[in-house]
């Protein structure tokens, strides 16, 4: 099966094609555009298809990052994914940006031969003095729902040291005043995560604003 993965949740506009049978990334195209995802996404998809040497009709699954991230960018990506899936008659999956961050950190541990067996706390700078958080096990399973918390509250959670903190908010949770750069969600990782993700109509993951829910009970267990 060929997976088409899309990311418009952050600064990048990206697409990748992944062959599940051979476990191979056939193509990936990423443009750092900041804004204007709606105007560039189709061209990025076309470039990925050309790079892979396949047709859109060869795609059997669509994956898309659903957030948290850019409100407008997420809407663009989700709408495109739904449109592709409808026209092709294929299934779709939504991939959390926090899951991508955690998966990248866990893969890095494997490459480095790390013996760190702590959970991973994916932490994104949500600005406005807030942080997006989600805790993942060493095998990549979510241990808590994704939440948005005030920075001071997030720092209290992180202070236990029970989890490895990764993402743009890592420096903030360590007491810094500036985030650790811009979060990026490698499109090849999105494509790989899509292989085992549960199919379903993707919808934006908004953690604040009209879709936000009160947050309570989030904690990192002491080890």
Written overview of the protein:
There is one protein chain. Helix 2 links the parallel strand 4 and strand 5 (91-96). The protein has helices spanning 37-52, 71-88, 97-112, 151-158, 170-173, 187-196, and strands spanning 2-7, 12-19, 24-32, 59-67, 91-96, 120-127, 130-136, 147-150, 164-166. The chain has two domains: 2-96 and 184-206, Nucleotidyltransferase, domain 5, CATH 3.30.420.40; 98-173, Nucleotidyltransferase, domain 5 (2-Layer Sandwich). The model is unreliable at 210-214 (pLDDT under 50). The chain is globular and about 50 Å long. The protein is α/β, with parallel strands linked by helices and 223 residues long. It contains six helices and nine strands. Helices cover 32% and strands 27% of the residues. The strands form two sheets. Strands 3-2-1-4-5 form a five-stranded mixed beta sheet, with helices on both faces. It has a four-stranded mixed beta sheet with strand order 8-7-6-9.
């Amino acid at each position: 099966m060929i997976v088409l993965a899309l990311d418009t949740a952050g600064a990048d506009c990206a697409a990748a094609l992944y062959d599940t049978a051979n476990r191979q990334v056939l193509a990936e195209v990423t443009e750092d555009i900041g804004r204007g995802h709606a105007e560039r996404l189709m061209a990025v998809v076309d470039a990925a298809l050309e790079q892979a040497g396949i047709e859109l009709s060869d795609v059997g699954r669509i994956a898309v990052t659903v957030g948290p991230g850019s409100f407008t960018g997420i809407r663009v990506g989700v709408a495109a994914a739904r449109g592709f899936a409808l026209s092709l008659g294929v299934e779709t999956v939504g991939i959390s940006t926090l899951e991508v961050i955690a998966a990248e950190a866990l893969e890095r541990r494997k490459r480095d031969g790390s013996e760190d067996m702590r959970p991973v706390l994916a932490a994104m700078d949500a600005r406005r003095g807030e942080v997006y958080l989600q805790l993942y096990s060493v095998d990549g399973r979510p241990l808590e729902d994704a939440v948005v918390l005030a920075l001071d509250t997030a720092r209290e959670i992180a202070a236990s040291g029970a989890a490895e903190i990764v993402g743009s908010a890592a420096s903030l949770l360590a007491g810094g005043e500036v985030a650790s750069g811009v979060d990026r969600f490698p499109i090849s990782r999105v494509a790989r995560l899509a292989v085992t993700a549960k199919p379903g109509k993707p919808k934006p993951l908004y953690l604040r604003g009209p879709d936000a829910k009160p947050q309570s009970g989030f904690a990192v267990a002491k080890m």
